[in-house]
Amino acid sequence: MTTARRLEIAQATARVIADEGLDQASLREIASAMGVTVGTLTHQFRDRDDLLRTTLEATAASIRARAMRSAEGKSGRALLVAQQSEALPSDETRRVEAAVWLAFATSSLSSEAHAARYRQLYGEWEDGLTEIVEGLEDRQVGDPRMAARLIIAATDGIALRALTTGGLSGAEQERMLSEAIAAVVGRDRP
Predict the structure, then answer these.
(1) What domains, with CATH codes, occur in the chain?
(2) Three-state secondary structure along 2-56?
């Protein structure tokens, strides 16, 4: 159960992760960033791992909720672009979320606890995209799951490039994503 206070702490943790890295997201660093005591955090969370899990969950939920809102009234390729665009670091909120998502990807290499939940969230993302691709009547791909995986890989790659090299505006990120999706499933027919 995520209370408003736990969510506030998770959001502060996400900013620390985005700005300082996952390894630097200690309870002390997070408390300092919030201007509270470590006791405030331990009152809400069992330990750092509980806080980090909640931060990943809150980040995924935020992206998912925005993707659902952006999907309203859209279908086909426009739906794919709209939903996937929500995972790109095109503004400050999305920058923080993308940085958290990618930090947990890296952490999954050495933490089985992070890897298990990350794989589950990734699988949910893949399942949802696969379902959308399966619904494309004129898709140019035989295997919808492979198409979903390629689209996710493109989304992650664009986010990684935008976060690490900079210089990609939100519009450029979305244009790159749109081209990647078109390369995977074809363009809308006139």
Answers:
(1) 4-185 (1.10.357.10)
(2) CCHHHHHHHHHHHHHHHHHCHHHCCHHHHHHHHCCCHHHHHHHCCCHHHHHHHHH
